[in-house]
Amino acid sequence: MRTPASRARRIVVKVGSSILTAAGAARARVFTELIRQVAELTEQGRQVVVVSSGAIAMGAHRLGWTHPGRSIPEKQAAAAVGQIALMERYRAGFARRGRQVAQVLLTRSGIEDRERFLNARRTLATLLRLGVIPIVNENDTVSTEEIRFGDNDNLSANVVNLVAAELLVLLTDVDGLYRSAPTPAGPTPAHWDVVERITPEIERAAGGSDHAFGRGGMITKLEAARTAARSGAATVIANGRRRGVLLRVASGEPEGTLFLPGQERRLGSRKHWLAFTASPRGELRLDAGAAQALLERGRSLLPAGIRAVVGRFGVGDPVRCTDPDGREIARGLVAYSAQDVTRICGLSTRQIESVLGYSNGGEVIHRDDLVVLDERSS
Q: What residue ranges define each of the domains in the chain, with the CATH number in brackets?
C-alpha cells in the first residue's frame, strides 16, 4: 500500500495530449473513463483539480491541420479553437454525472505576481469548496515563450502549490519511469516502482517525447515531481490508457512510478512560489563568503557580499543570487532597486543611509524573503 497516495485528500491530475487525442482527434472513450474516475474520487470526498492538455491538438484537428501550427500565431489560433472543444467534452461528461466544471486558464505572468497568485489560489479553493471540478490549462492563446510555463507538467506542479495538494498524478502513455529506453521491436522494459530521490541515474533514464502535439517528455515529469516534492506532495507517473488507473493510484495500489515527497527539502508556499513561479528580474553576483553564509548558515544577504549587479529591478522584485562560479544558489525579493544596490554593493550596512540618503534595513535580501536552491543546503 502506497500511503502517500492513499491518504491524499486533494489531488492534481495532469493528462497529456497523447492520452486525450490521436492525431489531434479526441479519444472519446479516454475522456469518458477519465471523467468517470475523477467523479468517483469526488464521491469519496476527495478534491480533484484536472490539468488538461489537448487544446492545440483538438483545435488543429478542427482546422483540418496535420500539425499543431507552424508558428506561434497558428498555435495560438489552434488553442483558441480547441479550448472550446476541450471544455465542452469535460462539461458534458461531468454534467452526466451531476458535476459542475470550471475553466481556469493560467499563464506564468498571471501568477508570478504574488497578489495574482493569491487571487488564483482563493478562486481555486472556492471552486473546490463548492464541489466544482477545476479544469486547468495554460492560456496558449496569449502565451509566448517568454511568459509560458513551457509544458503542462510544469504547470501541474505549480498548481500543486496553488491548491496545497498532497498528490500529483501525471497520466502519460507509458507505464512509469522505465529503467532503460524502450525499443519498437523489444519487450517493454521494467520501470521503477518507488523513487525516494531523483539521482543522476534516474535522470539518465528519462527520455524525451516524440508526440507531435505534446511539449513535455519524461525529463519535464521528473522536474514536476521534484517541484511538487518541495511542496510536500508525492507524484505518480502512470499509464493513462489503462482502465481505472487513476482510482488504483489514489487507493495506493502499486501502479506506475511513485516519487516520494521526502526526496527534497519542503518549502512553504511563499518560498515555493519564489523558487518555481516568480521570474527573476535580475542577478546579484556574490563573493565566496556571502555564498557560504546563504548556503550553510541561512543568513540574510548583506550589501558587503555583493560583487556585481545585473539587470534592472525595483524594490520587492525577485532576483537570482549566483556564487563566484556563476551557479544560481538562491532567489530572493530585494529591498532596494538595482540602481541603489549598485551604489551600496561591497559596503557595510552602516553606510547604506549615508550613501543612499535612506535605509530599507541592513539586508539587501532578508532571509525571510530568500529561498536557497543549491543542493548543498539540503
A: 3-271 (3.40.1160.10), 280-377 (2.30.130.10)
